[in-house]
Amino acid sequence: MSRRFNEDFLNELRARCDLETVVSKYAELKKRGNSILALCPFHSEKTPSFNINSSKQLFYCFGCGVGGDVITFIMKIENLSYAEAVAFLAEQVGMDLPPEDDYESKTSSLRKRILEMNRLAARFYHAKLLSDEGTQAFEYLKNRALKDRIIVRFGLGYSPDSWDSLTNYLKSEGYNNEELKASGLVSVSRKGVGSEKIFDRFRNRVMFPIIDQRGNVIGFGGRTMGDDPAKYLNTSETLVFKKGRNLYALNFAKASRREGLILCEGYMDVISLHQAGFDNAVAGLGTAFTSEQARLIRSVSDNVYLCYDSDEAGQKATRRTLDILSSVDVKVKVIVVSGGKDPDEFIKAYGADSFERLLTRARARLDYRIDTIKRKYQIEIPEEKTQCLKEITSLLASVKNRVEREIYIDRVAGDFNIKKENLTAEVDNQVKKASRYKQAKENRFAMEKLNKSLLPGEKSNQMKMMKAEDDIISVLLNFPEYANDIESFITPDDFVTDFKRKAYILLTEAIKRNPTVEPLLSISQDITEEEMGKLSSKVRESKSFTVNKTNVKELCENLKKEKSKLLLKEVKTFDDDTFKATLNKLKDKEK
């Protein structure tokens, strides 16, 4: 059972943690009239659909359906449980958590144990690097031109060439097999039913601790010192570590005084750049760059220098990452590293001043993409020139800003010695084509969204019933003073869908318990994040619609009528006696 908190404590916490102030640390807010909007930090979008209701201290995104209060927001943005989000906010405002009693979350407890194990493992690996066992690994790092201070700053270490050195150490510190397996620090070997053995996941590797923005060691990357075909190995995903949601060295880079961030591919690239004075460098974690990582970057800076390897794989990753970063409104420039080198190799060969010059010559996203396309073709051959222009035209059609599009059309027309009006006409055709495709895609998405919005127990042929249930829930959320009237007309049995019935019961009980608090805030501990989002979508400004006793009664009668219709549909296939019995029961209920 997850931990529960006293309502008075939660209400005080919310009062101290103004939703607008908290959200502003993660997204840029814009005021439009009485509304507070932002680009949603939970999904990629160009037009703000994230809305804050300051008077009710609730938020809702009309794009992805995420919604709730300040606690829900922190749960989602920081990947925390409810109890952990409460603790996170309480620490921010200096509030002491109430005693935990018997309700401490097992998940929260295990998460803390994993973080403790990771911290101990980092110290263990670092000590091994500086011992006789780590001589080869230490020499490897020194041969990579790393100074002692940078080895210490990044907490680099060494995992011994042993099957159980870390496992035995952590067991001696009081951790059991189940905790070790949950940590991602060990692997499991199974020999027959009921027989398993755990052993160190990392063996004979240089270790790179991965630290989150709060200073927690959440995982490790390990570079082999032997002939293991897996050159680099990361911690498997755990309660505290998700590769696609974190960036290496962001804990250091966010404090840099340099402009923007430098996004690299590897650990050594980042460490070499930091040592050379470019302490705004970060890297992915051995997986393809994700939208979540892009949004994480945007929370720190809206300017990025992309500096991937200059080989074909690196350039392919560059093109993909450019699109992802652009989709979350991050301004991107590409650092072109010459000579087939990665940033680490370039720094060692040419020094920090040369890399600084690369920064000043970094190519804007469109310039880089156009250059990349041109290099694929021999434009002196008419057929290839035509194909090249076709690809560039498609790229320019994707540019939303008309002024920027016009500038690049003019430039490309000059470069290819063609009439600007012809290129403009072709780009316009591509824009119209893309617009039709986008509209068709949005229509499909709208239908998919409708189907996904159906909660367990809801069916597409129950739309009228669902609307009737929604109307009742909406009144309870926005006009809780009518809760007694609603209860005099209907009961939980009048609801068809399980969730709406649950919401009805929770809301009416919460309103009776404390009528002065927003009902949705009062039940936040009793519903899931998804359910919180569903209910948040029904919270509106009171002036946006009118409610009185008459139409409340009409809404309740409509709910009962729709329930009766559904019951009649369900008994149509029954025999006559069953049908008559059900019909009589409905008539008796209506009297």
- Shape label: globular
Structural class: alpha+beta
Percentage of residues in DSSP E strands: 5-15%
Strand order within the widest sheet?
A: 1-2-3-4-5
Q: What is the average of the pLDDT values?
A: 86
According to DSSP, the number of beta strands is 16
Give an overview of the whole structure.
With 591 residues, the chain is of the alpha+beta class. Helix 3 (70-78) packs across helix 4 (82-93), helix 14 (343-350) packs across helix 15 and helix 18 (402-416) crosses helix 19 (420-452). The longest helix is centred in the C-terminal third of the chain and has 33 residues, at 420-452. It is globular.
How do you describe this structure in short?
The protein has 591 residues and is an alpha+beta fold.
Notable traits:
alpha+beta, five-stranded antiparallel beta sheet, 16 strands, globular
